[in-house]
Amino acid sequence: MTARVGVITFPGTLDDVDAARAVRRAGAEAVPLWHADADLHGVDAVIVPGGFSYGDYLRAGAIARFAPVMGPVVDAAGGGLPVLGICNGFQILCEAGLLPGAMTRNAGLRFICRDVWLRVANAETAWTAGYEADQRILVPLKSGEGRFVAEQRTLDELEGDGRVVFRYESAAPNGSSRDIAGVASANGRVVGLMPHPEHAIDPATGPSADGLGLFTSVLTQLVESA
Amino acid sequence: MARVVVNVMPKAEILDPQGQAVVGALPRLGFAGVREVRQGKHFELDIDDSVDDETLEQIAGTLLANPVIEDWSVTRLPENGTA
Q1: Quick check: A139 and A214 in contact, CB under 8 A?
Q2: Chain A interface includes B24 (CB < 8 A)
Q3: Measured between CA atoms, how close is A151 to chain B, in angstroms?
Q4: How many angstroms away from the CA of B6 is the closest CA of chain A?
């Protein structure tokens, strides 16, 4: 049985096509989910892709969090459904309370669009189990509000519990606290990151194929748990 | 009908690069003596009398502000008040 991975499209989403392509490249079926959907069409995992949902009005992700499809996503995540948020998707998952912290304007105020090296800090989540611990991966970063922040106590807990999943290898270009590029939920099923692994699945169209590992990781998990 | 003002500000410990950019620009324009600028958001709500203070706090804390990074204040203006 082919695993089915849902990819949500909100008004203003940009990267749903590349996310669906990455899912197919990894060997799964990509199922389009619409922001107004009342259910998840029985998918085995969900990706909340990047872009500018609802024009980033109010705060990035603040409106998308209340879209009809997010109710079932939050419920299913509570039951262990793997959920991946990329860039704006990460912001949405933070606003929805599935992941800790928040994203603010880049420290230098400039929109950053460049390839960045990341370290896989936790290779045991649903989305990173296919990587080696401490593996270096090269993926694009493209965001204006990508600076991850949280209370000191929350940051200490995240580091202590191994919930930092990705770190910028050199100092975070956007000023993120403790160079954090991505974090996970307590059970490791929900992961969010600001850089874009879905743009790095093929050297012909991206800086590397290093990002494909997130999408193959979740498939391996689904097959093993089937 | 009443008018309510909600002011949302970045928490003190959150770096406010927009405010820093403003404070950095002022001396270049010849304005001296401004030590710090912090930039936030100002909302004006026209509400029915049925909306109580507790509901207003919920509106501010769940949608208008993100409690992780922002503080807020809710102020009811006097009748025919302006913000």
Answers
A1: no
A2: no
A3: 8
A4: 13
What interface predicted TM-score (ipTM) does this complex get?
0.82
pLDDT digits (tens, 9 = 90+) for B38-71: 999 999 999 999 999 999 999 999 999 999 999 9
Q: Active-site positions of A?
A: 87, 196, 198
Q: How far is CA B76 from CA A142, A163, B52, B73, B82, in A?
A: 41, 42, 11, 10, 11
The chain B residue lying nearest A154, using CA atoms, is B68
Distance separating alpha carbons of residues A90 and A149, to the nearest angstrom: 13
- A182, A170, A175: which is closest to A213 by C-alpha? A182
Query: Comparing C-alpha atoms, which of A206, A167, A224 is closest to residue A25?
Result: A206
Best B8, B20, B39, B66 residue to mutate vs chain A (most A CBs within 10 Å):
B66
Task: Count Cα neighbours of A41 within 13 Å in the Cβ-side half-sphere.
Answer: 17
Token pair listed for A187: 């059970």
Question: Does residue A113 belong to the interface with chain B, where contact is any CB pair within 8 Å?
Answer: no
Domain at A4-225: CATH code: 3.40.50.880
**Domain residue ranges in chain A:** 4-225
pLDDT by residue (tens digit) across A158-170?
A: 999 999 999 999 9
Q: How far apart are CA A216 and CA A139, in angstroms?
A: 16
